[in-house]
Amino acid sequence: MAYLANMFSYTFMVRALIVGLLVSLCAALLGVSLVLKRYSMIGDGLSHVGFGALAAASVLGASELGVAIPVVVVAAVLLLRLSSSAAIKGDAAIALISTGSLALGVLVISVTSGMNTDVMNFLFGSILAMSQSDVTLSIILSACVLTLFVLFYCRMFAVTFDEGFARATGANAGLYNTLLACLTAVTIVLGMRMMGALLISSLIIFPPLTSMRLCKTFRSVVICSGLLSAFCFVAGMVISFALSTPTGPSVVAVNIICFCVFAALGRARALKKTARRANIR
Fold first, then answer.
1. I want to staple 83 with a disulfide (CB 3.0 to 4.6 A). Which of 90, 137, 168, 236 is the partner?
2. What is the DSSP secondary-structure string of 145-178?
């Protein structure tokens, strides 16, 4: 307890904890639908777009979150439209937008101010990068994301598992797909300051995949993903503070360990059920 009290005596650690928990929760909840719809790599694509937007905002001296959020939201809607077209499908659309945005971001910075520490912060994250205004905006937007997810939970569930049936029952599947993409875009931008453009998608992918090793219903996966994501972030922060390692990679390392543990438990449970059925026969 004394160690934790010392750790959170620093203002930047408290800021990182508050924003990190909120963003981790948002990413995990949205990630369940994205993983089940086989669209989990949208986080990776949008994070690269966010890198380009953050780079441009930094060069122009504008508000980084103020520029990045609308740009990434527009990119999310565009990505959704491209992936639904006959000419460019999902994985190709993600690759097209993500690689192009990453290249443009690097070019903008290298031509104007040169490659410096800020670029590393954008790519791999830094908890020192969170200002008080960033924290306030992140809390407000995270609360909006969580509220919208709860309000439209049933519609998200329907669109995730059977989009054709959802359309047949009168649901506007296109609207809810767009909402999911926009909420994901906002979450990606908020988390990039700490996790970085290259690692933020791990918050979307790991918790749902880990939870699915043991949980079998949509609701249980959603709840387990949220709890697991919060735990992994706090554990990663503690490890980062104790070992002086980057926060983003530390959080990802904890997620990897949890995935391996859940996968082993799921395998053991499956073997136990198989053995029980064999004994019954």
1. 90
2. HHHHHHHTHHHHHHHHH-HHHHHHTT--HHHHHH
Amino acid at 40: S
For residue 169, what are the contacts with CB-CB under 8 A and spacing of at least 6? 158
Token pair in block for residue 127: 């908890």
Six-digit token pair at 25? 């929760």
Dihedral pair phi/psi, residue 131, rounded to 5°: -90, 170
CA 170 to chain centre: 30
Q: Say if residue 74 is exposed, middle or buried (CB neighbours under 10 Å; 0-12, 13-18, 19+).
A: middle
Rounded CA gap, 216 and 213, in Å?
Answer: 8
State pLDDT tens for residues 144-188: 999 998 898 888 888 877 777 777 777 777 788 888 888 888 888
What is the DSSP secondary structure assignment for residue 130, as one 8-state letter?
Answer: -
